[in-house]
Amino acid sequence: MKKYKDMSKDELLTLKAALLEEYKEEQAKGLSLNMARGKPGFSQLALSMGMLDEINSSSDMRTLLGNDTRNYGDLDGIGECRQLMADMMEVKKENIIVYGNSSLNVMYDTVSRSMTHGVNGSTPWCKLDKVKFLCPVPGYDRHFKITEFFGIEMINIPLLEDGPDMDLVEEYVNNDPAVKGIWCVPKYSNPTGIVYSDEVVRRFAVLKPAAEDFRIFWDNAYCIHHLYKDKQAEILNILDECEKAGNPDMVYMFASTSKITFPGSGIAALATSPRNVEFIKKQLTVQTIGHDKINQLRHTRFFKNIDGMKAHMDKHADILRPKFEAVLNEFDKELAGLEIGSWIRPVGGYFISFDALEGCAKKIVAMCKDAGVVLTGAGATFPYGKDPKDSNIRIAPSFPSVEEMEAASKIFVLCVKLVSIDKYLG
Ligand code: PLP
């Protein structure tokens, strides 16, 4: 296939006319497809329905230690659920606090507490003139919304194929005391699907922050969310590495079972050093009497242990893999070699990230919408919703069916081609 940049004006115009015909045919089908949100599909949710049978009116409601889950107690989670989340996050049980059903809520709380009460006794961030966060981009829009909500200045850090640009991270963190945190999705990142290398994790652990209350917000949302049995990414354990490097308190790790059981009714957890756990629990005792322990019991009885959870994730992978491949195969078939976009083949997580030619993302998203395909808004993957190059588009293949993903991908590549031609035509 000839690269668009090597085509003459006439060639581009002829191609455009043919593609426009195809686009109009697609438009006439009146499709309504949504690739905007990383939601599990119906059949994925069905995988966990058996969990609801684990507890009924004649069930023994006690934990392994004999505590009654219907009553007060176990503020930081029932023992067996803390153990399960610890095994999932590859940390020790003493590092874990189990929360409610949303890890995003825990992240919000963590920033909020730091604003009002500081970090382990440091000056509350709200009393400082300036608080800054580093934001590897493209990244997760809801992280950026939290820091924006609290008026924290966000600094873009390019996300490379093995993690954030660590030269830049070191420069900011080690020199600027206003830099208090960084958002990280270390495994199967949202949206690029990249995995942090061991070197990147080690460089994080040995940071020498100018601010003693600097924290790494390590959102391991996709820690066991592999797509292929023979390509399962492993990352170094950041808590262990930080401890070895003499920075034991520098990281908060987050995860949940939102995309394992139910996003509407899962289990979220925070993992951090015992010193941080102690400080956080002082707030927790004021904040709540406790979270939903019956749901914790349901989860632990359903999975039994981490092996049960991993076997369950294999079933998710079987459902998700063909949807990812529907998109990637269409990209390979229709876009490879044209040099009008680039993408990474994720082997886990929930997203495919596409980088269009500069200045084309918004137009592609709008054109897809006009043909019935809804994508995440262009720019959403950057702080303040502003992609400086207007090039990144996030695709979420999990919710539609495989057939719908095939149809949507077809429209997507058509729009990429048409908008790119227009760019070259000027
Ligand atoms: N973190 C990342 C990186 C995500 O992509 C998502 C959801 O898409 C979440 C957190 C949300 O997690 P939860 O449902 O536990 O709030």
UniProtKB/TrEMBL annotation:
InterPro entries: AspAT_Ic (IPR024551), PyrdxlP-dep_Trfase (IPR015424), PyrdxlP-dep_Trfase_major (IPR015421), PyrdxlP-dep_Trfase_small (IPR015422)
A Pfam family reported for this protein in Swiss-Prot or TrEMBL: Asp_aminotransf
Designated name of the protein: Aminotransferase class I/II-fold pyridoxal phosphate-dependent enzyme
Organism: Coprococcus ammoniilyticus
Keywords: Aminotransferase, Transferase
Keyword Ligase assigned: no
Gene3D superfamilies registered for this protein in UniProt: Aspartate Aminotransferase, domain 1, Type I PLP-dependent aspartate aminotransferase-like (Major domain)
Any one GO molecular-function label of the UniProt entry: transaminase activity
Keyword Transferase: yes
